[in-house]
Amino acid sequence: MQLESNVFRFDDTVNVYLVRHERTAVLIDFGSGDVLDHLGDFGVDRVSDLLLTHHHRDVAQGLARAREAGIRIWAPPTERDLIAAADEHWQMRPLDNIYDLREDRFTILESVPVDGHVAEYRTQRYGDIEILALPTPGHTPGSVSYLLDADGKRLAFTGDLIAAPGKVWSLAATQWTYTGIEGLGSTILSGLDLLDRAPDRLLPAHGEPIERPAEAIELLNGRLQALIDLRSPEWQLASLRARPYLEVSRHLLRNRTSVSNSYALLSDSGAALLIDFGYDFTTGLPAGTDRSSRRPWLETIPALKRDHGVDRIEVAIPTHYHDDHVAGFNLLRDVEGTRVWAAENMVPMLEAPRRFDLPCLWYDPIPVDRQLAFGETVRWQEYEITVHPLPGHTLFAAAIEFEVDGRRVVATGDQQDGRWVSGERPELLNYQYRNGFRFDDFRDSAELYRRLRPDLLISGHWLPRPVTDDYLDHLLEAGTELARLHRELLPLDSVDFGAGGFGARIEPYRSDVAPGTALSLEVVVRNPFGRIEDADVCLVLPAGWTAEPAVLRARIGAGEDVRLAFRLRVGEGPVRRARIAADLTVGGVRFGQQAEALVTVR
Q1: What is the pLDDT of residue 424?
Q2: Phi/psi at 11 (5° precision)
């Protein structure tokens, strides 16, 4: 079916769209791959590139044919693992007692390598054809639509976002959690984003071309909102999208739609600095923790620019490394040219996340453009910014201090909730042992606040909190009591491995290596005794692997840590997540296999 002079539709398990330039074509979605048997019907000799709107099998089941034909395959960014690593997905996906209702099992049966992922929000050349990729979650969290200007019209290839005016191809696909309605909200937002791009025609993966996009999407959004209203009538997506930022003060805004809170510090020059930028305009996080369950996007940035005089996002600074605070940083860099500044203690977790065994690490490295030393004041536009250590919620966090609109503000991330009411509600001290919590962290952070004397604390998941002396006194009392109880509950007089309870860790925690190659590891060991002792560490390895040296001994001061370096020779593999352990003895006391690391050989 010819749609425009050089745009065609081939009917398969889905609508496969062919965009022609001379005798070469680009395909959008692939179905079974039968289109390759009919290229001559479209005046085409070869296909250079294939762009996928999402990972579902009806869209991608024939991908092996594309790979065999030498076609470059481009996947949506958050769904590439469901295609290129489908074998691992099938092995790892939980099946028992599940509450994860995403249709990620409607992916291809076997892995097919991809050449890369499409660059969202940007126009790129595929073959000789320029196409814009736009995030449009809804049918799946990671879905993408493509916009093409052809014959004076703007065409939008929308995958399964919309099937007909007022209709979606599947409502079941929009339920990403048990009883959830996340995909309904995302579909509304995605439809509005499409309309902002003024398409003349929508070309869905199922259904006929849609000639009146605005009418079709408005009808769909009205029906979806009515379905949402049956459960959450207060959740008005279009209204939230129209005004996602609320004023804390004239030059400080809070993004009320994101997970976690993101704050925008505004300069009179038109620049903005963002404090944290995780999951912008969330409609609810899908179940699961694989890459395809976590989509970063820039949904509120147009409103920030439109309504608040912002013409550029110059800098983003995280309060800590957790994914809900940094997930959007790389996208900000790629699309907006934003530079990432970060406090010195979290840079390793941002730039090399696989090195660490910590919760909430982002999947990919986040390069840091400027490392901020604690206590050093740096200038951005008309503001002076100082970062301070803020251990507690995580050891790798920072308090960000600045003055704006006549008030001293400290951004505290997830340290505490700020909802204390004297005699009614205690403060939540948000500690997690796996994040590196130490007994005195919250007492120390209370002392920091007393020294800085802020007027306002802004946090990651709660409303801004005006600071009073009573509140600071309560934080100090609560932090002191927290430390006292931990010391009473743990047998620290005999063995002190701290709040975390382990005497060793291995870095890097995760490694990917080729068969038969060498791998360097460090084991960080703690002396749990109140005296100098010798510590012996040996690595427990898979059969056929070797370590040099076989055993390391170090003399360690009371309560101190040391790093011990080993060099491994790995086996021939392939093997996924081979386990290595560090067996620890300190002062003649055998503590056993205190730490593990995972090595994939391929």
Answers
A1: 87
A2: -85, 120
Cα angle for residues 209, 214, 218 (degrees, 5° grid): 110
Report how far apart, in Å, the C-alpha atoms of 102 and of each of 4, 88, 174, 187, 289 are.
Answer: 35, 17, 8, 15, 12
End-to-end, the C-alpha distance of the chain in Å comes to 44
3-class DSSP assignment, residue 530: coil
Cis peptide before 549 (omega within 30 of 0): yes
pLDDT of the residue at 423: 82
69/112 Cα distance (integer angstroms): 13
Q: For residue 369, how far is the Cα from the chain centroid?
A: 19
- Distance of alpha carbon 541 from alpha carbon 545, whole angstroms: 6
For residue 292, the 8-state DSSP code is G
CA–CA separation, 522 vs 532, rounded Å? 21
Spell out, as residue ranges, where the chain has pLDDT lower than 50.
none
| 94 preceded by a cis bond (ω within 30 of 0) | no
Distance CA 219, CA 209 (A): 16
**Cβ burial 121-155 (10 Å sphere, 16+ → b, else e):** eeeeebbebebbbbbbbbbbbbbbbbbbebeeeeb
Q: Which helix (H) or strand (E) holds 506?
A: strand 504-507
Cα 107 to Cα 15, 100, 112, 146, 175: the distances in Å are 17, 15, 11, 20, 16
In order, the DSSP letters of 183-201 are HHHHHHHHHHHHHHT--SE
Sheet holding 504-507, edge to edge: 504-507, 518-526, 561-569, 546-548
pTM of the predicted model as reported, rounded to 2 decimal places? 0.96
Length of the chain: 602
3-state secondary structure of 494: coil
> Hey, what amino acid is at 101?
L
Contacts (Cβ under 8 Å, ≥6 apart) of 234: none
One-letter amino acid for residue 462 of the chain: W
Closest C-alpha among 589, 592, 570 to residue 581 = 592
Report the C-alpha gap between 76 and 53 in whole angstroms: 7
How far apart CA 547 and CA 583 sit, in angstroms, is 13
CA–CA distance from 198 to each of 8, 361, 601 (Å)?
A: 21, 37, 48
Q: Which of helix, strand or coil describes residue 133?
A: strand
pLDDT of 228 reads 97
Dig out the tokens for 115 from the structure.
Answer: 């050449």
Contact 300, 244 (CB under 8 A): yes
Alpha-carbon dihedral of residues 249, 277, 324, 596, nearest 10 degrees?
Answer: -130
CA distances 316 to 228, 329, 580, Å, are: 34, 7, 37
3-state secondary structure (DSSP) of residue 407: strand
Helix count and strand count (H, E) for the chain = 13, 34
